[in-house]
Records
---
Amino acid sequence: MPLQGAIALILLCQLVGELAARAAGLPLPGPVLGAVLLFLYISARGGPGEDLRQLSDGLLRHLSLLFVPAGVGLTEHLDRIAQEWVAIGTAVILSTILTLVASGWTFTLVLRWQDGRRQRRGMA
Amino acid sequence: MNLWVYLAASPLFWLLATVLAFTIAVQVHERTGRRAWVNPVGLAILLLMGVLLVTGTPYPTFFAGAQFVHFMLGPATVALAVPLWVHRHEVRATALPLLAAVLVGALTALVSAVGLAWLLGADAVTIASMAPKSVTAPVAMGISEKIGGVPSLTAAMVLGTGVLGAVVGPVVLRRVGVRDPRAMGTAMGAASHGVATAAAFQLDQKAGTYGGLAMALSALLTSALISAAILFLR
């Protein structure tokens, strides 16, 4: 598949995803459904072509850049943030750290439990 | 002066400014030894905010140019299917820890953000805007609108949460004994969506893949949890 084919495929998956989310009234974002569609397509083909692989690598390697425009939107809310910076700052910082720890520990604990169960089964 | 008036209103100028600011931020990140706290996204945002404030440029004028970069978020999300396919066998084997971690993460993010903001006396609009802060921006903005928040304020908090998670995520997780790249990626994606997923991709490709998965699952779960809460409270 040539590069333009890979670009068209990704855009097509996104478009169908957006349309499906809207038509079904799902609270899901179109691109997430688009990713599901692309995954199904790749599975059906037995793997992504070289061009699709490179395009995906390129997009994901520069993922950070894509968040910059939305972030600059902070300038629109400087007044509110100046007024409530203690509450906003504390809530964002503590909540983010709590979430990181809770989620990281859950993954580790459930993985350990699952591995332990598999091992016990293996021995029995 | 007339030239500046032309330039300042031109989408091309603000598109270039966005890419340039990011290039500078990446250079600073590299030159300072790739320290996590010199986050390229955060630095680029601060640089551009400075330029807008100094030149008195309204955000919509800036966004008319920057939207071409912003647009690529959709295709990049779709592109997550590729690393997901590449790592599919391993992901299937860890489906249970992944789901459990994202569910616990989404609940913790929601309850702690709303609870803390409320305890600290934030106003109702701020609290509603903050509730979906750990979810990827386009979904978070949709949720915020539904529950009486301000979508663009939500976008700002989402980005703040993202940069914070990218910066402190690896340090906090190692400190509490989470070193498995799969667990680290999942926690970063669940707490701080795409910005931290981008940082996770730089740690390790596997961590990035789990970050992307956690981000997508958390968008689904948080939408579902909030929809359920709305129905229940009604």
---
Amino acid sequence: MNTLPRWADIALLPVLNVVLAFLVGGLIVLAVGQNPLEAVGIMLYGAFGYGSGFGYTLYYTTDFIFAGLAVSLAYHAGLFNIGPEGQAYVGGLGVILIGLALNGTHWAIMFPLMIIVGALFGATWAFVPGYLQAKRGSHIVITTILFNFIATSMMSYIISRQLKPAGVNSDESAPLEAITRVPQLRTFIDLFKNSPVNLTFFLAIAALIFVYWLIWHTKFGYAVRSLGNNPVAAGYAGISNQKLIMIVMAMAGALAAMVAVNNVGGVQGRLILNFVNGAGFVGVAVAFMGRAHPVGVGLSALLFGILYQGGQELAFQMPGITREMIVTIQALVILFTGAMGDMLRAPLARLLTRAGATAGGK
Amino acid sequence: MEQLIVDLTLILDSTTRLAVPLILACLAGLYSERAGIVDIGLEGKLLAGAFAAAATAAVTGSAWLGLLAGIGAALVFSGIHGLASINFKGNQAISGVALNFLAAGLTTFLGQSWFKRGGYTPQLSGDRRFNPITLPFANELREVPIIGQIYYELISGHNIITYFAFIAVPVTAWVLFRTRFGLRLRAVGENPKAIDTAGISVTRLRYQALIITAVLVGIGGAYLSIAQSAGFNNNMSAGRGYIALAALIFAKWRPGPALLVCLMFGFLDAVQFRIQGQEFPIIGEVPVQAIQALPYILTVILLAGFVGRAVAPKASGIPYTKER
């Protein structure tokens, strides 16, 4: 049986898979008669070339870190959570409700309150599929998908029929006052002018560190990983699988809800119909690409932040390429790093063994 | 009374139209899931099929070539799914999710690159679409009260894919429960090792199931873009693949109940706009969103085992590794 050395397993294989995904993406761009290298150049300029572009990149990265962590944390417990989209959406309800209830209060008080109430709402929404998986055996993949749809309908009703103030045409809640909103970094740093990146970005960095600590340096994290690796053994070791599944799902939902703090609390200052806009689903790609490790999640979230912000620039500069190319890349990344992650394992192992044998022979 | 029957016929008629893609996608999923392959990617195949059908019909001028292209696109997607989940023994749920994104991204991207209409394909008419078929004597019988009305509105006047979908249900039941292939298909979803021991290739059987899945769901996609509508637009499958998946669970992976559940979901879809703003006794006004969410809520309740129990084929979602 071929086994890979540790460095190849941790670094080389994932990188090769991502490269493969981007190569296929490049071929598709080439197939419609556009120059993929030119596209990459424009994207990099859009993402890093000027202050507000960079700010947008970090803003998207913030969303993707939370969504990626929501998928990753559950994945460590062997649960495939496709629900961050709905969890973030419902989290937005919590953020706006506390925000509107205490509208006008200073953000220094409101920022933590929005985090807590948003997290509670997101956690509740994710807890139900967790409960159904743990106690009733319903498959988490199916239930989280169904809950995304239920969230869409429920939130659409709440926003358009309950929260929408009279006399407003678009489907959105009443606005938060400026002092209540999470401050944007441009108020402190000139570089980020006109970009929405806000204090939630630092919350995302903190979340990465927190999840790393939680999974690898606590008893709880050990239990979660045992559950993911071998639920039967974990059961014999006295770990209550059911309780763990529910707690992990609730935590994942709370993490996903932070997308709402970033958007509702930090940028829009109001709850807008469909504000999550696919960020939760990007989390799936981010988690697989980052191999559910916080360092990987941070890096892949940044990569997707670059793709999303660079994609905007691309749409201006190269009309032949639409932003949907990013969704295609996202799909290819999930496919090659998630579903087909082991495709290159055997050939790579053979190659390395042969190289090792040649080097050893000399 | 007369008016009630007319109204009812019209609602049932649109129920039928809305149920067709659900029925085809649901039967498609039934074949793979019975063979032990979880197919979250039905939504993506439906969308890819719809796009390929409309694009081909627009370019070639033939609805039939469009249909073939729709099936072809679904076959490619099934092939990737098979490669990931059968050959590389990857996670089937992940592969399905990836394929759904792939379809969403590619159809819009290619549509814009090729047709430059913001993701829409050109409007289709005439031979580029599957048009309604008037069954024999439908026009003559139209004036006959009730029966004539039902025959004219409900039975006649659909396109060929609609009739195909309704025929596919009993055919699927027959294949699944009355043929050797069907027996093997069910066995490979429950106990692939037994099939392997009997000297039958698990891989081959599962690929055969995926091919049938692709053909059915590809036809379903073509229905969306070149039969029900006159062209493709962005994300036109609009979650129907997921609804079909829900229907499949609801029907406990059986063809007959699958038809009924799809018709029920189609009915909910058909009435949701009619009841908007209407006051009902006791419950008052029902928000349209509640009706939209109903199929998903019902499926959650069923999955939770509060009413009945939905048990998937035993080996579903588990890649088969031959012992060495």
